[in-house]
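User: Predict structure, ligand flavin-adenine dinucleotide.
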Amino acid sequence: MPSVVAYHRPTSLDEAFEFLSNPQCWALAGGTVVVPNARKNRATGIAVVDLQALDLGHITTDSHRMELGAMVRLSDLCDNDQVPAVVREAARRELPSVLRNQATIGGTIAQAEPDSVLVAALLVHDTRISLHQSETVYLGDYLASERKGLIVSANIATRGQGEVAVTGRTPADTPIVAAVARSDTNGVQLALSGVAPTPVIVDPNDPTAGLNPPGDFRGTAEYRIHLAEVLSERALGGVR
Ligand SMILES: Cc1cc2nc3c(=O)[nH]c(=O)nc-3n(C[C@H](O)[C@H](O)[C@H](O)COP(=O)(O)OP(=O)(O)OC[C@H]3O[C@@H](n4cnc5c(N)ncnc54)[C@H](O)[C@@H]3O)c2cc1C
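Assistant: Predicted complex:
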């Protein structure tokens, strides 16, 4: 049995949306998650809906917000000096350079790995997600939902000052816990990765309230809470 049983390359959002209404069909963006998963699903195989002909690679800006098409690559974020510095740094920390050339912002958001520094950075940048044939949602609400639908773009705030603080096993390794802070005229926002099933917005005055992180070989729950406290203080120190 081949691992990919059907390949679709729609040229319109409606057509892509129609294919994706079949639960056996996976959206294929950069493929850094989908391709390894296809191999794991050899017993049944998966059908893929390649998003690359949908023209979702745009980056547009206005005075204080920026729209990123779902197929914008993480390397494009790193290379664009109009992207807030903290988002650029988070994209750089997310994956090694070869995978940054493949992975997209839409795939990263839909996947929302617990230790995604980029998703934490997007959370503090007041990110709103456009889903095809659906209302725009705040990223935090999207992450708390079943994460269904076709992501068309992410709209982020560009003003303010940001700071990232991380701890990993080595400087190049995926951080065990990361804290991302941002301040603007509306106040201070803080998000953490590595402490919950997805990155989360937390209260800057009590960052670890209600957190119950799972432990693994990289750090126990207690260690992660300790890191969250220390890193939150460092990140907040950079924006206050
Ligand atoms: C070696 C390796 C290391 C990794 N390390 C990290 C890490 O350190 N931190 C981290 O956070 N992640 C990591 N990942 C996971 C992964 O690379 C990221 O989540 C990646 O950014 C996903 O983007 P993609 O474009 O490749 O998504 P894809 O693999 O194409 O898709 C990922 C998921 O998103 C869905 N999807 C894609 N685009 C859309 C869309 N527009 N609308 C709706 N759904 C969509 C897909 O159907 C799939 O379920 C790693 C992966 C690999 C292979």
